[in-house]
């Protein structure tokens, strides 16, 4: 039961975006006691915050917000993809792996790579 937070703001306090997103994540700390992360893009006016309850990948490779290997996509995700290992296999066969292969074992990474593909 992870916790997600974020906002869009094109005109207000871009320098404070990370601080505000961190405050939002802290307010839902009970949703994910294992890890917390914030990602911001001041130019786009986007902030994403995540509180993690680690289930599949207990390592730092499952940290969120998760950025794609190409750097174009960032994702926060709460859920479970039951067939993510099958999806990974299909993505691997199609040679659509990120450079260097898979970073970890999280279904979030599988979902992110499917967007890239």
Folded structure, characterized:
This protein has 3 helices and 5 strands; from the N terminus they run βαββββαα. It has helices at residues 17-27, 84-93, 107-116, and strands at 3-8, 35-41, 46-52, 66-67, 74-75. By secondary structure, it is an alpha+beta fold. A hairpin with a 4-residue loop joins strand 2 (35-41) and strand 3. Helix 2 runs parallel beside helix 3. The chain folds into 2 domains: 1-53; 59-117, no CATH class.
Structural key phrases:
117 residues, three-stranded antiparallel β-sheet, alpha+beta, 3 helices
Give a summary of the structure in a few sentences.
The chain is an alpha+beta fold and 117 residues long. The protein is 26% helix and 21% strand. The protein has two domains: 1-53; 59-117, no CATH class.
Helix content: 25-40%
> What class, by secondary structure content?
alpha+beta
Q: How would a crystallographer describe the biggest sheet?
A: 3 strands, antiparallel
Return Rg in Å. 15 Å
Oligomer: single chain
